[in-house]
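cron nightly-structures :: item 1 of 1
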Amino acid sequence: MTALEDSQRIQRIALQRLESLQRAGVLQLPKAAVIEDPAEEPVDEIAVDSPQIAKEPALPPTKAAAKVTAAMKTTGQKTATQETAAKSRLSKCKEELALIQYEVARCTLCGELVENRTQTVFGVGNPQARLCFFGEAPGADEDRQGEPFVGRAGKLLNDIISKGMGLTRDEIYILNVLKCRPPGNRNPAPDEVTNCRQFFERQLETIQPEFICCLGAIAAQSLLETTTSVGRLRGQIHDYKGISVVVTYHPAYLLRKPAAKTETWKDIKILLDAMELPIPKRS
């Protein structure tokens, strides 16, 4: 091969390299860069690494990538919308419960209860709780403090909620059939239950729980409008306007008859299973 032919071959290969670099997006070579004999290595394997060399332009997103991006945006919008809706519903629940509580505090339908009460006992807990504990009526401690289940029976209920279910009072909602304490802690009279029904039904309608645990005969019979005993109502799930209802003994009864705690534990396990909650480890 003559010197002229050899020079032409080198120029041709060098040109091929430059065209290849240009197609790859390389528009400028560093001053210190030296192109060695192109015959020593293939054109496609030339690598240039310098901050002065323009980077390869980003490729436009593919349709799949575009779909993923759109889906992420949509998911973000849905999440934001859901959060806004949840906050709005919580605000409405609180407002409605506050209105009902206002009406309860001014109720004078039951003359004897009004004359003997210190204050009404409305309810306490999460206004959007999955679970409501439904009791009978306030006792002396509840009448004094204005909150349901704060006496000895309340402490036992706290144990059932925390130790037996792994929950807290802040996660559930507690209310009673009656909002005023019957004198001498007697059982509620039928007309008193009738007068208070509008209030506890509106409470439950506002909270919209998935589950209700009735504590004792008065609570279960008043809610389910039945005369069936607690013994027969236990061990199964009942329905109240689409809400699952479990019946067990009242904590005050368990204080009088501790042996019944074993049966109550069975009821709580039925409730946990229905709520798809794990049974807490017992120490």
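cron nightly-structures :: done
The radius of gyration is 37 Å.
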